[in-house]
Design a protein that fits this description.
Structural class: alpha+beta
Number of strands: 11
Helix content: 25-40%
Order of helices and strands: EEEEEEEEEEEHHH
Largest sheet: 6 strands, mixed
Shape: elongated
Radius of gyration: 38 Å
Number of helices: 3
Strand content: 25-35%
Distance between the termini: 154 Å
Strand order of the largest sheet: 6-7-8-9-10-11
């Protein structure tokens, strides 16, 4: 019995009909394109003539996806090694200039002692004034640093100012407990004594504490509201006292007027 084994690896078609229409096409025996080159444009998984420099096409399902894999090989597992890089460059051909780097995306290792202990971060850099500098980093545990590589315990750390039309801060409590009947409101004399001793309002951090630890926006807004609500209670108390005093003044004025009238009639 004779056995015929047919092995089809690939078919490479090169078309060089004209200088402007050079093509390289790599496909299998099903005529499905794997690699296609035409006029400086490259496509993978498709032979579309409408490609733009690099086009990758693939089937997406539960276990497969299209994409690009950047691999680096090292002979040891020392941390802080490059694991892949994308460099964005441009060149002015009219002036004969060199390729200039405008931005990069870098992946580097942070831990690599075994296959069960692998970690890495992603950094984004841009060029300004001819200097390439890192602008943003995503750490191995998902924290984001903008303008800084030290995120501390924060999910987002920003070295600089933040501009926003609206910021929503979620909090677990608010300061309406001030209006509850069992709330012990300090007297103004007690508040004055506390200020003289500590140099700041009760329940409010001192300047030194703020400089050292910063402030929590949600917590600080709640504390400030607490002080506003306490001021409101003081004003209500003061208003009641003023009304009582006004009523007493009016009674005294009436009594005084009646006494004067009696004296005049004697």
């Amino acid at each position: 019995m004779k056995t015929i084994i047919l092995l089809v690896i690939s078919i490479i078609t090169i078309n060089t009909t004209t200088q402007a229409q050079k093509k390289v096409k790599l496909e299998d025996n099903s005529n499905a394109p794997h690699f296609y080159y035409q006029n400086g444009n490259v496509s993978i998984g498709t032979d579309s003539s409408n490609v733009n420099f690099l086009t990758i096409k693939g089937t997406i399902n539960d276990n497969q996806y299209s994409g690009v894999i950047l691999q680096s090989n090292w002979n040891n597992t020392t941390p802080d090694k490059g694991a892949g890089q994308i460099i964005f460059q441009a060149k002015d051909d009219d002036t004969g200039g060199t390729q200039e780097t405008f931005a990069t995306i870098n992946a580097r290792t942070t831990s690599w002692t075994s296959t069960s202990d692998i970690g890495g971060y992603l950094s984004f850099s841009t060029t300004s004034n001819n200097s390439l500098s890192e602008r943003m980093r995503i750490t191995e545990d998902g924290k984001v640093g903008i303008g800084t590589t030290s995120t501390g315990s924060h999910k987002l750390a920003v070295e600089g100012t933040i501009g926003a039309r609206e910021i929503k801060v979620e909090t677990s409590g608010w300061s309406d407990f001030v209006f509850e009947n069992d709330y012990e409101l300090r007297t103004l004399e007690e508040v004055e004594e506390y200020i003289n001793e500590h140099g700041h309002l009760p329940e409010i951090p001192s300047e030194a504490e703020v400089i050292e630890n910063g402030i929590n926006l949600g917590e600080m807004n709640a504390k400030l509201l607490q002080k506003i609500e306490e001021l409101t209670l003081y004003l209500i108390q003061h208003d009641k006292q003023n009304k009582e005093q006004q009523e007493r003044i009016e009674k005294l004025e009436k009594m005084n007027s009646e006494l004067l009238e009696k004296l005049e009639n004697q």
